[in-house]
Amino acid sequence: MKFKNKTVIVTGGGSGIGRATAIAFAREGAKVVVADINEETARETVALIHAKAQLAHFIYVNVSDANSVNALVDSTLATFGHLDVYFSNAAVIDTGIPCIETTDALWSKVIGVNLSGCFYGARAALPHLAKTKGNMVFTASVASLGAMAGGASYTASKYGVAGLVNQLACEAAIDGVRVNGIAPGGVLTNIFSEMSNFAEVETMVRAVTPLGRFAQPEEIAEPVLFLASDAASFITGTVLRVDGGWRSK
Question: Bridge partners of 187?
Fold first, then answer.
């Protein structure tokens, strides 16, 4: 088991990539903190892990609130005593709204969750990861690697995440902490499937993705585990594309 006796925090662990990754970490022996703003879905993830006689624990978090993120890390340490991996995954989308139609409220929400949430997580977790020579993984996006047709706030937030990965990798290396990110393309999660224009989005994703399909959340989880594992011991400051070739075009 690659993560036996390791303590892992997964934000946004109640669904999608977060749920799949929490389950994968638990399968590999980790003690998983499933952190989410949605208690119901997060507890469903915990139950799925418990059903396999593996260890998971729910802690509420609103990643756009620094105090809430601090409390998440403090509660994790109080429960498990140490922290080895912090997967900063919680995110929201803006449904492709262009800049001139983006309200102040939408901008603040997307930046607050997607970018500030990553910053708050890093600030809270890094001192404790230094004690275990642990690592952080951030969920960026293909939107962090190039402009999209719309979605000014989302694209800006994910470019910021990619920049944070590079900066933190340089800052944390002295403490033996690695910092990386993943850049998924289209992933079949409830965020996409519940969109009113899902058929249109699906057609677009298939057209821009050489593999011609959405990824399943589990196909993103495995690269996250790789980056967090000893197999990636000389990888830091990298945003790994997991996009079916989207950004190869």
Answer: 215
Please give the DSSP secondary-structure letter assigned to residue 223: H
In 3D space, the residue among 182, 108, 26, 162 whose CA is nearest the CA of residue 10 turns out to be 26
Phi then psi for 85, rounded to 5 degrees? -140, 135
3-state secondary structure of 5: coil
- Residue 72, token pair as written in the block: 């998440």
Structure-block tokens of residue 232:
């990636």
* pLDDT tens, N- to C-terminus, the chain (249 residues): 899 999 999 999 999 999 999 999 999 999 999 999 999 999 999 999 999 999 999 999 999 999 999 999 999 999 999 999 999 999 998 888 899 999 999 999 999 999 999 999 999 999 999 999 999 999 999 989 888 767 899 999 999 999 999 999 999 999 999 999 999 998 988 776 666 577 777 888 888 899 999 999 999 999 999 999 999 999 999 999 999 998 887
pTM of the model: 0.95
- Catalytic amino acids? 154
Per CATH, the homologous superfamily of domain 7-187+216-241 is NAD(P)-binding Rossmann-like Domain (3.40.50.720)
Could you tell me whether strands 7-11 and 135-139 are parallel, antiparallel, or unpaired per DSSP bridges? unpaired
> H-type helices in 51-91, by residue range?
66-80
Segments of 20-146 assigned E as strands: 31-36, 56-60, 85-88, 135-139
CB-CB neighbours of 52 under 10 Å: 10
- Number of Cβ within 10 Å of residue 241's Cβ equals 19
Q: Please report, for the chain, the start and end positions of each structural domain, with discontinuous segments joined by +.
A: 7-187+216-241
